[in-house]
Amino acid sequence: MAITKPAPPAADERAGPSRGSEGPRLDSPLALTLLLILLVLAQGPIRQALSAPVMQSWMTVFVAVMVQALPFLVLGVLLSAAIAVFVPPSFFARALPKRPALAVPVAGAAGVVLPGCECASVPVAGALVRRGVAPAAALTFLLSAPAINPIVLTATAVAFPNDPEMVLARLVASLLVACAMGWLWQRLGRADWLRPPARAAYDGQSRGAAFWGSVRHDVMHAGGFLVVGAMAAATLKAVVPEEWLSAAADNPVVSVLALAVLAVLLSICSEADAFVAASLSQFSLTARLAFLVVGPMVDLKLFAMQAGTFGRGFALRFAPTTFVLAVAVSVLTGAVLL
Question: pLDDT tens across 300-312, in order?
Answer without folding.
Answer: 878 877 887 788 8
